[in-house]
C-alpha cells in the first residue's frame, strides 16, 4: 500500500519535514510494510524554499544581507534541481521573525535585503524566480527591494531618500536608469494568496499594518504614503496600482512586482504542488496524510491541506488531515476532497505542552487514523478505499 505524507509545518512545534517523519512513524506502527512517500509542503509562506529544494534535490545558498532594520542578517535562497530556478522567501531577509516585537515599526522597516537576495541570485546565474512573499515586517511598497536593485528615488530637492514606509510620502522622482537590466530578461513567479489592493480600507496598511507594529495614526500615514507612491508609479509606468488586486501583498511589494518586473502571481500552494509533482506522486497512491497547526474555515482559502485535498480528489484518493487544533467552518473542506479531520490532542492539555509534544501526538494520531482506515478496508473487502494493495 502506497501512502503519500504531505503536511505543512506545525508552527512553533514541527517543521514540515519533522511532521512528515512523525506521521510516517505512526503509520508504520499500524502497517509496518507500508510504502510511504514523504513530501513536506508549504503554501507559499514559511518553509516554501525548503520544501521545493528538498523535492527537487536542489541546494541552498547562504548569504548575508540587510534585515528589516538594516542590520546584517543571515538569509538564504534556494536553487532548484534544474539549476536554473531560484526560490526566495522574503521573510528570510525582510520578515517579522527578524524583528523584536518591541522594535516593530513599518515606518522604518525596509525590503532592501530581499532585493539583495534577488541580486545575488542574478549574479549566480538565475533567471527564473519563485518569490514567496508572506510574513513581511515591511510596508514600503517594495521600494527598498527596488533600491537594492538599482532604482533611485529622490525628494523634491533632488536628494536621494532613505528607507522605510514613511519615506514614500517624500518621493517626487523615480529613476530606473540603473535598475538591474537582468530583471527584464528573467521570469518571476510570485507565490501569494493575498488579493488586497495597495491602498484604502482593504489595502496593505489598513489590513496588515497593525500586525507589523502600526498604530492607527501610523496606518493613516502609511496609507497616504502608499497612495503618493502609487501616483508616481502611474506617471512613470502607466500602471494604476492603487486598487489593483494583489498590489497590497507584503506591504505593497506585490505592486512593485506588478509595475517593474515581468511577473505573474499564483497561489503559493499551486506553485509548490506543481514543483513537487504532487499529481504524479498521488496517481498510484492509496491515501494521503496532510495537515498543519490550525484547521478552520480559512484553510479553504488555499492552505496546504486544501491544496493537497484538491489534487487528491482528482485521483479519488482519501485525504486524512491531522490538525494541531480544529476551528469552525471545516465542513467546507469535505466538498473539496478532505475525507476526515483529526485533532492531535486526545486529552485536555496546555498549548505549550501540546506544542512540546507535537511529534509524539502527531505520531499517535497518524497511527489511530491508519488503523481505522485499515479496518474499513478489511470490512469492506478492499473495494471502496484501496486502489492498490
Task: Give a written overview of the molecule.
- This protein is of the alpha/beta class.
- A hairpin with a 5-residue loop joins strand 4 and strand 5.
- Strands 3-4-5-6-9-10 form a 6-stranded mixed beta sheet, sandwiched between helices.
- The radius of gyration is 22 Å and the shape is elongated.
- It is built from 13 helices and 13 strands.
- The C terminus is likely disordered.
- It has 2 domains: 141 residues, Rossmann fold; 221 residues, Glycerate kinase, domain 2, CATH 3.90.1510.10.
- Helix 1 packs across helix 13.
Main beta sheet strand tally, sense and closure: 6 strands, mixed
Following the backbone from N to C, one meets helices and strands in this order, namely: EHEHEEEHHEHEEEHHHEHHEHEEHH
Q: Quick one: CATH class of the largest domain?
A: Alpha Beta
Mean pLDDT: 93
Task: Provide the gyration radius in Å.
Answer: 22 Å
So how many helices?
13
Share in β-strands? 15-25%
| CATH domain topology of the largest domain | Glycerate kinase, domain 2
Oligomer: single chain
What CATH architecture of the largest domain would you give? Alpha-Beta Complex
Question: How many domain units?
Answer: 2
Strand order, biggest sheet? 3-4-5-6-9-10
User: Based on helices, strands and strand pairing, what is the structural class?
Assistant: alpha/beta
Apparent shape: elongated
CATH superfamily (homologous) name of the largest domain = Glycerate kinase, domain 2
The counted number of beta strands is: 13
Stretches where pLDDT is under 50 for at least 5 consecutive residues are 384-389
- Gap from first CA to last CA: 5 Å
- Approximate helicity band: 25-40%
Amino acid at each position: 500500500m502506497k501512502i503519500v505524507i504531505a503536511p505543512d509545518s506545525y508552527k512553533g512545534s514541527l517543521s514540515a519535514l519533522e511532521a512528515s517523519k512523525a506521521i510516517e512513524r505512526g503509520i508504520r506502527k499500524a502497517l509496518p510494510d507500508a510504502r510511504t512517500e514523504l513530501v513536506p509542503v508549504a503554501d507559499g509562506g514559511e518553509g516554501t524554499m525548503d520544501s521545493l529544494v528538498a523535492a527537487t534535490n536542489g541546494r541552498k545558498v547562504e548569504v548575508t544581507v540587510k534585515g528589516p532594520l538594516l542590520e546584517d542578517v543571515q538569509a538564504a535562497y534556494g536553487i532548484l534541481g534544474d539549476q536554473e530556478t531560484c526560490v526566495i522567501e522574503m521573510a528570510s531577509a525582510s520578515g517579522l521573525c527578524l524583528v523584536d516585537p518591541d522594535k516593530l515599526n513599518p515606518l522604518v522597516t525596509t525590503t532592501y535585503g530581499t532585493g539583495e537576495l534577488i541580486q545575488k541570485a542574478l549574479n549566480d546565474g538565475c533567471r527564473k524566480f519563485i518569490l514567496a512573499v508572506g510574513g513581511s515586517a515591511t510596508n514600503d511598497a517594495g521600494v527598498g527591494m527596488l533600491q537594492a536593485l538599482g532604482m533611485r528615488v529622490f525628494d523634491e530637492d533632488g536628494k536621494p531618500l532613505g528607507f522605510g514606509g514613511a519615506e514614500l510620502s517624500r518621493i517626487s522622482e523615480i529613476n530606473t536608469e540603473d535598475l538591474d537590466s537582468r530583471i527584464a530578461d528573467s521570469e518571476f513567479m510570485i507565490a501569494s494568496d493575498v488579493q488586497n489592493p495597495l491602498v484604502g480600507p482593504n489595502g496593505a496598511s489598513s489590513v496588515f499594518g497593525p500586525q507589523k507594529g502600526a498604530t492607527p495614526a501610523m496606518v493613516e500615514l502609511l496609507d497616504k504614503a502608499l497612495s503618493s507612491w502609487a501616483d508616481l508609479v502611474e506617471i512613470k509606468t502607466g500602471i494604476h496600482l492603487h486598487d489593483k488586486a494583489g498590489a497590497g501583498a507584503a506591504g505593497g511589494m506585490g505592486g512593485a512586482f506588478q509595475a517593474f518586473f515581468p511577473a505573474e502571481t499564483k497561489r503559493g500552494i499551486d506553485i509548490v504542488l506543481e514543483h513537487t509533482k504532487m499529481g504524479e506522486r498521488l496517481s498510484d497512491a492509496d491515501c494521503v496524510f496532510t495537515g498543519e497547526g490550525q484547521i478552520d474555515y480559512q484553510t479553504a482559502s488555499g492552505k496546504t491541506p486544501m491544496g493537497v485535498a484538491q489534487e487528491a480528489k482528482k485521483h479519488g484518493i482519501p485525504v486524512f488531515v491531522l490538525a494541531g487544533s480544529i476551528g469552525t467552518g471545516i465542513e467546507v473542506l469535505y466538498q473539496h476532497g478532505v475525507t476526515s479531520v483529526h485533532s492531535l490532542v486526545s486529552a485536555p492539555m496546555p498549548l505549550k505542552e501540546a506544542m512540546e509534544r507535537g511529534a509524539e501526538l502527531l505520531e499517535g494520531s497518524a497511527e489511530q487514523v491508519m488503523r481505522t482506515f485499515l479496518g474499513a478496508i478489511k470490512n469492506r473487502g478492499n473495494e471502496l478505499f484501496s486502489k492498490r494493495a
